[in-house]
Amino acid sequence: MTGQKMLKFTQVDRDMPEKRVPNLRNKDFDEIYAQYASDKAEEQASRCSQCGVPYCQSHCPLHNNIPDWLRLTAEGRLQEAYEVSQATNTFPEICGRICPQDRLCEGNCVIEQSGHGTVTIGSVEKYITDTAFAEGWVPAIRPHVERGDSVGIIGAGPGGLAAADMLRCQGVQVTVYDRYDRGGGLLTYGIPGFKLEKEIVMQRTAQLEDGGVEFVLNCNVGEDLSFDAIRGKHDAVLIATGVYKTRDLDLAGNDADGIVRAIDYLTASNRKSFGDVVEEFESGELNAAGKRVVVIGGGDTAMDCVRTAIRQGAESVKCLYRRDRANMPGSQREVQNAEEEGVEFVWLSAPAGFEGDAVTGVNVQKMRLGAPDATGRQVPELIEGADYVEEADIVIKALGFEPEELPALWGVEGLEVTRWGTIKAAFTSGETSLEGVYAAGDIVRGASLVVWAIKDGRDAAEAILGYLNQSVTVAAE
Ligand SMILES: Cc1cc2nc3c(=O)[nH]c(=O)nc-3n(C[C@H](O)[C@H](O)[C@H](O)COP(=O)(O)OP(=O)(O)OC[C@H]3O[C@@H](n4cnc5c(N)ncnc54)[C@H](O)[C@@H]3O)c2cc1C
Ligand code: SF4
């Protein structure tokens, strides 16, 4: 039976869901891929060769049981496919949309390596979960038993929410504190709608709230409420605050008006997508409409900025990156999307300073790639005398993020951090140097991926449950 349904990769070509045409999609913030029709999802899932040793699964941080849910999809057993997918992943509808599958599951699919084009795992995952929500197969959180113990989670990003889900399902009383006015962390205010529509995230926060997770929003821990107060109120605490300190440039003119941080720019744009009034957007400070935009950086944040600027109606959008296309950290899929939408990439170009009190341009130095360094990456070297000015009305710095200094910010003694400023936490449990305090996601790993934050949140929840159970046992003795 399975043999008939599966292994169709030699007969059926790889086919992604339809991508909206660039000159239409670059005018709105809706997702760019359409949904599969059900027969298409079944057909694409049936291409899987059901490997005995599935590399897609072993290269997924969550070890999602991909071959099984592909087979169930191919057989039209979608509800079971959803149940298998949900068993290892708290937010499959989100991973299906924004995981860099080309570097994880799909990048390791064996049929890709045999020249047939990878199974479209991400798109099938998205299809299964969207169908599950539409059909009402996503169960409400209704714990069998309510427990008396409580956990405070600081940070409502994917790491904190994955832990909240698991703990709440076990009947633990969960309170999530966040300084923003909506849950979701970077899913809500970092990642733009054309990659992940906002209602997809809000659907999950609503599900958690309906299941009894309490959200305390607009609460900046360390300012509005102390860490010690949270620790004193709950039996265990999870820190899942992400990393938000922007890496900066130490260049002449860096403080000019019109030079902005990527996170501020993207947050303002995402708030507009919710219909919020955003002063810095209305004033033009964080709005690219009609402007010549230069984005500095070559990672996924830079890609999100350039594509946002195009959608806001910028006159031109250029991305400066000091290495070349083959050596950029951002996903090649996103670079291609950006190019299709009208972004110009200026490779081998590094900023050397800025012109104007209100920025009018970036002084650009041209680079070439030299010998590889200890990490094997070719080092950019300056080409003397090839400098020029790239005109700009707004410059967006997208150079990456670092952790804030939490122990100092929160006045916490004994919370150990690494030399990079991330919280020191045990590898599979998230246990920190403070008893009953755990950490998960970017604040432990440094800027990473949603799927790793989910994995960490789930692992930490399991460890916290163990800790709570142990505390109950000790108290009873
Ligand atoms: C622009 C951008 C695009 C990205 N695109 C992708 C992508 O396509 N695919 C992918 O896999 N990953 C992507 N990432 C990375 C991904 O978003 C992160 O790895 C992931 O969100 C980390 O989850 P987290 O829960 O650790 O932290 P976050 O999502 O950052 O959530 C942390 C939460 O903690 C809150 N918080 C922080 N400090 C406090 C405090 N003192 N008090 C109260 N609350 C606090 C914040 O408000 C936030 O809501 C992107 C990141 C950025 C910046
Ligand atoms: S590696 Fe590819 S073909 Fe093999 S089980 Fe995974 S999706 Fe199927």
Characterization of the model:
The chain is globular. It folds into 3 domains: 2-135, Fumarate Reductase Iron-sulfur Protein, Chain B, domain 2 (Orthogonal Bundle), CATH 1.10.1060.10; 150-243 and 403-476, FAD/NAD(P)-binding domain (3-Layer(bba) Sandwich); 251-399, FAD/NAD(P)-binding domain, CATH 3.50.50.60. The protein is 37% helix and 15% strand. The strands form 4 sheets. The chain has a 5-stranded parallel β-sheet, sandwiched between helices. The chain has a 5-stranded parallel β-sheet with strand order 6-14-7-8-9. β11 and β12 (378-382) form a beta hairpin. The protein is α/β, with parallel strands linked by helices. It contains 20 helices and 16 strands. It binds flavin-adenine dinucleotide and iron/sulfur cluster (SF4). The site of flavin-adenine dinucleotide has 36 residues, from α10, α16 and α20.
Features:
16 strands; binds flavin-adenine dinucleotide; Fumarate Reductase Iron-sulfur Protein, Chain B, domain 2; about 475 residues; alpha/beta; 3 domains; about 35% helix; FAD/NAD(P)-binding domain
Extract low-pLDDT stretches: none
- CATH class category name of the largest domain: Alpha Beta
Radius of gyration: 23 Å
Provide the CATH architecture of the largest domain. 3-Layer(bba) Sandwich
The distinct ligands, each listed once, are: flavin-adenine dinucleotide, iron/sulfur cluster
**CATH third-tier fold name of the largest domain:** FAD/NAD(P)-binding domain
User: Would you identify the CATH H-level superfamily of the largest domain?
Assistant: FAD/NAD(P)-binding domain
The beta-strand count equals 16
